[in-house]
């Protein structure tokens, strides 16, 4: 482990050194280009290359000092941090100091390079205005590059931050979905085992058939429900198995109708998406006129799935939302945020759930 850590540190240090070397080379190339430009422009209308080159070399430290003051101090510490007053004040100081050294460069050319003979000076170096323009033009170009670099870095950092936020939200979403699935499993199993227990007490002959159907449901619950999506046909098949289990439990007191359109095998939905609605109808439905009435329908209109289920209730029955229904609401918001509409209504005789899902 220690060897791996040391190797990783070595790789990082090498990358850091290579990055610094690349930055240094870029700076060297930039200043060589500036020196070449100074020599070229100051050499206009003169053949005294030695004078021009010496003058350009003397002016380079002034240009470099002014440039790095702007790019490494004024821009990052004041302009980008919106300290505009301090930025203006220090810019003024920088201009005054750099102007002083530019004038010294002018005297250097006059005294040391032309022996106090103005005629011996290169024409382009005689004008302080031109020297100011030359120096501050380089500062302006370098500052523009610096601002572009800071803007790119800021955009890149913001993008990385947004990506991290999205990744965190995605992980939280996946964890919440996993929690909701884990919540469904024991809840569904508990209700089904209660039904099986009732049959066992009665020593019903249908107990074995019920265990077989329960086995199919558990297979779906354990091996299919952890998948991101399952075929809608599989979901409906297991709803039918669940309904068959309830038919055995309710016997003659159950009146259920199912109007299900043929399902395209390509259609997929989140697992255990519809079963909680069905389970809720049996659990919270009430026997009225000696019957528990449930009506279920599944239709497809263009690219939308319309699922509806309603169960009979008593007139004075209090409204109660079970774990399964609360769970499915959260899952729908996470999985189909802008692609579903869930309506739950209640009248004197019916508790009605309708779900529209854009496929």
TrEMBL record:
InterPro entries cross-referenced by the UniProt entry: Bact_2-comp_sensor_kinase, HATPase_C_sf, Sig_transdc_His_kin_internal
Domain Signal transduction histidine kinase internal region: 176-253
Top-rank lineage group of the source organism: Bacteria
Keyword Coiled coil recorded: yes
Parts of the chain that traverse the membrane: 21-41, 53-75, 87-109, 129-148
Coiled coil: 156-183
Any one Gene Ontology molecular-function term assigned to this protein's record: kinase activity
A family per Pfam: His_kinase
Keyword Kinase annotated: yes
Range of residues in the leader sequence: none
Keywords (A to Z) from UniProt: Coiled coil, Kinase, Membrane, Transferase, Transmembrane, Transmembrane helix
Protein name: Histidine kinase
Upper lineage: Bacteria, Pseudomonadati, Bacteroidota, Flavobacteriia, Flavobacteriales
């Amino acid at each position: 482990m220690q060897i791996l850590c040391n190797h990783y540190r070595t790789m990082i240090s090498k990358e850091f050194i290579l990055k610094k070397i690349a930055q240094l080379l870029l700076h060297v190339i930039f200043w060589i280009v500036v020196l070449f430009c100074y020599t070229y422009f100051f050499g206009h209308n003169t053949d005294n290359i030695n004078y021009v080159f010496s003058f350009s070399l003397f002016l380079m430290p002034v240009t470099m000092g002014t440039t790095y003051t702007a790019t490494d101090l004024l821009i990052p510490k004041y302009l980008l941090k919106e300290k505009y007053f301090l930025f203006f004040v220090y810019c003024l100081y920088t201009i005054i100091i750099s102007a002083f050294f530019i004038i010294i460069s002018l005297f250097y050319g006059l005294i040391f390079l032309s022996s106090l003979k103005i005629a011996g000076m290169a024409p382009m170096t005689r004008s302080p205005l031109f020297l100011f323009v030359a120096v501050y033009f380089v500062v302006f170009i370098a500052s523009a590059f610096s601002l572009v670099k800071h803007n790119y870095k800021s955009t890149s950092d913001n993008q990385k931050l947004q990506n991290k936020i999205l990744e965190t939200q995605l992980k939280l979403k996946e964890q919440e979905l996993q929690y909701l699935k884990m919540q469904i499993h024991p809840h569904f199993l508990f209700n089904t085992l209660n039904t099986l227990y009732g049959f066992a007490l009665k020593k019903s002959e249908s107990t074995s058939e019920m265990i077989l159907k329960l086995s199919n449901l558990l297979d779906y619950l354990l091996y299919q429900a952890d998948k991101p999506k399952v075929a809608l046909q599989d979901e409906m098949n297991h709803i039918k198995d669940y309904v068959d289990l309830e038919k055995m439990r309710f016997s003659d007191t159950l009146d259920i109708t199912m109007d299900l359109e043929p399902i395209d095998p390509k259609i997929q939905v989140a697992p255990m998406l519809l079963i909680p609605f069905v389970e809720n109808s049996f659990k919270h439905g009430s026997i009225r006129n000696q019957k528990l009435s449930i009506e279920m329908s599944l239709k497809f209109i263009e690219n939308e799935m319309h699922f509806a289920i309603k169960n009979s209730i008593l007139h004075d029955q209090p409204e109660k939302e079970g774990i399964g229904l609360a769970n499915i609401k959260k899952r729908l918001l996470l999985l189909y945020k802008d692609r579903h509409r869930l309506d739950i209504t209640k009248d004197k005789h019916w508790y009605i759930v309708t779900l529209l899902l854009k496929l």
